[in-house]
Amino acid sequence: DTEVTQTPKHLVMGMTNKKSLKCEQHMGHRAMYWYKQKAKKPPELMFVYSYEKLSINESVPSRFSPECPNSSLLNLHLHALQPEDSALYLCASSQDGWTFFGQGTRLTVV
Amino acid sequence: KQEVTQIPAALSVPEGENLVLNCSFTDSAIYNLQWFRQDPGKGLTSLLLIQSSQREQTSGRLNASLDKSSGRSTLYIAASQPGDSATYLCAVRRAPGTYKYIFGTGTRLKVLA
User: Fold this and answer.
1) What band does A96 get if pLDDT is binned at 50, 70 and 90?
2) Do A47 and A62 contact (CB within 8 A), yes or no?
C-alpha cells in the first residue's frame, strides 16, 4: 500500500464554520506533512510532524490547527477561515527521502 | 536562502519528441532532489529521487541528472506521449535532519497527439 488517503475531496465552508481535513497512510512513514497550494503555484509547506510530534510550523495562522493522533493519521482543524484560504490542501508522508502525496482536499471558503 | 527555478514555465511539443526540463537551485548544499508530476487539481506523484552523491537516476522513459556544483538538475523524457501532459516540479532538500523541501516554480507540459 503506497497510498496517502485524504478526505474529503471537496469542502465548502463558511467563514464561521469549523471543519477538519483528514489524512491517512499505512506505509509506516514517521514524517507527515500539510501543504497548501494555490492555482498555478508550487505547494507551500504548512506543518511537519515527525514521530507524531510537531517539528515545523511555517508561521501558519492559528485558524489552522494540526493534530497527529497516531503514526498513521494526520488532521487539520479549520476554524474562522478567510476566503483567501481557499486552496488545494495536500497531505504527504515520507521515508528515506521518497515523498508520497495524497490527492488533496479542494477547499472553498465562502 | 534557497531558491529553485524551473525553465521553461510552459512547453508544448508534438508526440514522440524527446524533451528536457530544467531545474536550477541557488544553494548547492542539498541533501537530495526529487522530481514530481502533478495532474490538474490532483496531488503530486514522485517520479525520481536523486541523492546528493548521485549523478543520475532512471525510471522507464525518464532520466534525471544532478550537477550540484552548477546548481542544476535536468529531467529528460524520451519519446513523449500525450499521457505525459502534466506540470513537472522539482524539489530540493537541504539536510537529512530537516523535512523541508523547497519546490521549484514548475513546468507545464502539453504533449500534442
Assistant:
1) confident
2) no
Inter-chain CB proximity A43 and B103 less than 8 Å: yes
pLDDT of res. A81 = 95
Coil, helix or strand at residue B96: coil
How many residues make up chain B in this entry?
A: 113
Which pLDDT tens digit goes with each residue over A30-79? 999 999 999 999 999 999 999 999 988 888 999 999 999 999 999 999 99
C-beta atoms of B44 and A33 within 8 A: no
Contacts of A94 in chain B (CB under 8 A): 99
Interface of B with A (CB under 8 A): 31-32, 34, 36, 41-46, 49, 51, 89, 91, 93, 99-101, 103-106
